[in-house]
Each structure stands twice: as C-alpha cells, then as structure tokens.
Amino acid sequence: MFKIQQYGKSELALMYFPGASTSRGALSNLTYWIRCNRELSVALKECGMPVRSKTFTSKQVAIIIKYLGEP
C-alpha cells in the first residue's frame, strides 16, 4: 500500500517512472502528465502548490493519486 506523505518531486516522479534513466527525466514526465490533466493542474494550484517547490506535501500527493492513481 502506498503511503501518503511528503515526497521530493524527483522521488515521487521516480515512483511513477521507475524505468526513467534519470530523476530529471522522470520529473519531466510527471510534470507533463500533471500539465496534460487539466483537473489535476487546477486542483494542485488551488491547494497552493508553488511552482519552484522541490517537494510535494502530503495533501498534494493525495491529489496526484486521486487523478493519476498510485505509482
């Protein structure tokens, strides 16, 4: 069972994209998925997600899981 807690953005991205060759590539893929999912993007903005943050809060992780499912 996936634990909802604060994660580094790259850490969570690697959970969604374990086959990515780099953490940067995994994060680019996750960012793309988030941007393509309009409802997810809006929900994250509404909860106050800063653009340059290096972490996802537990609330943001819960929102991501709601729209993308568990990694």
Can you describe what's shown?
The chain is mainly alpha-helical. The protein has one domain (about 5-70). Helices cover about 60% and strands about 5% of the residues. The chain is built from 4 helices and 2 strands. The protein has helices at about 10-15, 25-35, 40-45, 60-70; strands spanning about 5-10, 55. It has a two-stranded antiparallel ribbon with strand order 1-2. Helix 3 runs antiparallel to helix 4. The termini are close together.
Blueprint (SSEs and pairs):
Elements: E1 7-8, H1 9-16, H2 23-36, H3 38-46, E2 55-56, H4 58-68
Antiparallel strand pairs: 1-2
**Largest sheet, spatial ordering of strands:** 1-2
Distance between the termini: 10 Å
Round the Cα radius of gyration to an integer and report it.
11 Å
Average per-residue pLDDT, rounded, comes to 96
Helix/strand structural class: mainly alpha
- Portion of residues in beta strands equals 5-15%
Helix count, DSSP H or I runs of 4 or more residues: 4
Keywords:
71 residues; mainly alpha; two-stranded antiparallel ribbon
Question: What does this entry show, briefly?
Answer:
The protein is mostly helical. 59% of the residues lie in helices and 6% in strands.
